[in-house]
Specification:
The protein has 421 residues and is α/β, with parallel strands linked by helices. The chain has two domains: 2-18 and 231-417, Alpha-beta prism (UDP-n-acetylglucosamine1-carboxyvinyl-transferase, Chain), CATH 3.65.10; 22-228, Enolpyruvate transferase domain (UDP-n-acetylglucosamine1-carboxyvinyl-transferase, Chain, Alpha-beta prism), CATH 3.65.10.10. The protein contains 14 helices and 24 strands. It has a four-stranded mixed sheet, with helices on one face. The longest helix has 13 residues, at 233-245. The structure holds uridine-diphosphate-N-acetylglucosamine. Uridine-diphosphate-N-acetylglucosamine binds at residues 23, 26, 93-94, 122-127, 161, 163-166, 187, 191, 304-305, 327-328.
Length: 421
């Protein structure tokens, strides 16, 4: 096991490069199941989740080579298995993304049900209902979804909530269905737009990309395409908050400011100075932040994946801030750990009420999930003395070399081997 040892108090200064988006890569990689051939995905982040997806595809016979420069070469010419086993899906829910493309291309898929996650139940009913509407025969057998279809047929699918995963899965199924599929109340997250653009580059016919109504004319066959992964807006947001919390000045490069509108607006409201270029964002923070409420919402709203980091940020704002998560109502596992660092936070229903402005004190804390780990690192960067963060395998799922990037900005953070769990 490994832990982070963080000595608080250093102001972050300098430049940091933002990696490719985890949630884009996790959708682009399984899309290669839709057409046999060789794909070149550039700007792929070298993350544990991406390696898990490569391994899962590998077990199906797809060769994924992730190179140090971020190029991922995928050869999907030989698919020998149509199954995503529980061992992979329990590690990463996004494994469920193989269901749509396998069913569309091969007419059969056996994919483990993901079950709950660290912060509560996360259903997949919308994925399954949508696939059934497309004509699939879906059975649940001993913890697995077994889906069959000799031919999927276009239909109208209205999503009760604009689920990112369901939109991605249904999009990948519909591109090879016979006739027209219309998905209404579709997710408009940039990572879904990227997936749709990749599918178009592969020969799919999709209208309405970036809007809640996607109209897909099925085609009989697709071909491989080369794609560049968009920058990770959540990694970017995390570094912006890190800079603001330490009252530093940091420039993010290889970032897309247009994907961060809600986060940038809230940072300004909290008192940060921001300058954006085409692919850069510079942030400067000189004072304590102002208390700033946020409510998470589907894109382009404030992302739930930035909620934990914002909670850590608001512990520094003298006064009361309210942080409401409307996407995942129970996503507050970071709160008791932030309280161990001295924060005053109460959770009422799906709102964290933060009474900020009292100093944080270094302590030993435990990561419970990916973004909670990020929040703990941020808090440790400003806590007095030394903090230790255990179970950091969560952070490696979604941040590429986070400690090295932070060290380069002047943070005192070390990855240390430990027997503690
Ligand atoms: C994706 C992201 C995750 C992000 C989340 C919300 C990936 C790999 N993960 O997760 O980082 O936090 O979007 O932006 O891209 N829901 C249902 N039924 C379903 C599916 C979802 O009720 O079948 C509900 C969920 O419980 C949740 C909401 O829809 O309340 C949004 O979830 P969804 O957008 O599906 O999240 P994921 O795709 O799992």
């Amino acid at each position: 096991m490994e832990k982070f040892v963080v000595e608080g108090g250093a102001r972050l200064q300098g430049q940091v490069r933002i990696s490719g988006a985890k949630n884009a890569s996790l959708a682009l990689m399984p899309a290669t199941l839709l057409a046999p051939g060789t794909y070149r995905l550039t700007n792929t982040p070298n993350l544990r989740d991406v390696r898990t997806m490569a391994q899962l595809l590998g077990e199906m016979g797809v060769d994924c080579q992730l190179h140090p420069d971020g190029t991922c070469i995928i050869d999907s010419r030989t698919v020998t298995s149509f199954e995503a086993p529980y061992e992979q899906v329990k590690k990463m829910r996004a494994s469920f993304y193989v269901l749509g493309p396998l069913l569309a291309r091969y007419g059969y898929a056996r994919v483990s049900l993901p079950g709950g996650c660290a912060w509560g139940p996360r259903p997949v009913d919308l994925h399954l209902k949508g696939l059934e509407k497309l004509g699939a025969d879906i059975r649940l057998e001993r913890g697995y979804v077994v889906a069959k279809a000799s031919k999927l047929r276009g239909t109208h699918i209205h999503l009760d909530v604009p689920s990112v995963g369901a939109t991605g899965n249904l999009l990948m199924a519909a591109v090879l269905a016979e006739g027209t599929t219309v998905i209404t109340n579709a997710a408009v997250e940039p990572e879904i737009q990227s997936l749709a653009e990749m599918l178009v580059a592969m020969g799919a016919h999709i209208e309405g990309i970036g809007t809640p109504t996607l109209r897909i004319e099925g085609v009989s066959e697709l071909h491989p395409a080369d794609v560049t992964t968009i920058p990770d807006r959540i990694e970017a947001g995390t570094f912006l908050v890190a800079a603001a919390m330490t009252r530093g000045t940091v420039q993010l490069v290889d970032v897309d400011p247009s994907l961060l509108t809600a986060v940038l607006a809230k940072l300004e409201e909290a008192g940060c100075q921001l300058e954006t270029g085409t692919d850069t964002i510079t942030i400067t923070m000189e004072d304590a932040p102002r208390p700033t409420d946020i409510t998470t919402a589907p894109y382009p709203g404030f992302p739930t994946d930035m909620q934990a980091q914002w909670t850590a940020f608001m512990t520094l704002a003298p006064g009361t801030s309210r942080i409401t998560d409307t996407i995942f109502h129970d996503r507050f596992k970071h709160v008791p750990e932030l309280v161990r660092l001295g924060a005053d936070i109460q959770v009422v229903d799906n709102t964290a009420i933060v009474n900020g402005g009292t100093p944080l004190m270094g302590a030993k804390v435990m990561s419970t999930d990916l973004r909670a780990s990020a929040a703990l690192i941020l808090a440790a960067l400003v806590a007095e003395n030394t903090s230790e963060i255990l179970r950091i395998y969560h952070i490696d799922r979604g941040y590429e070399r986070i400690e090295e990037k932070l060290q380069a900005l002047g943070a005192r953070i070390q990855r240390v081997a430990t027997d503690e769990f």
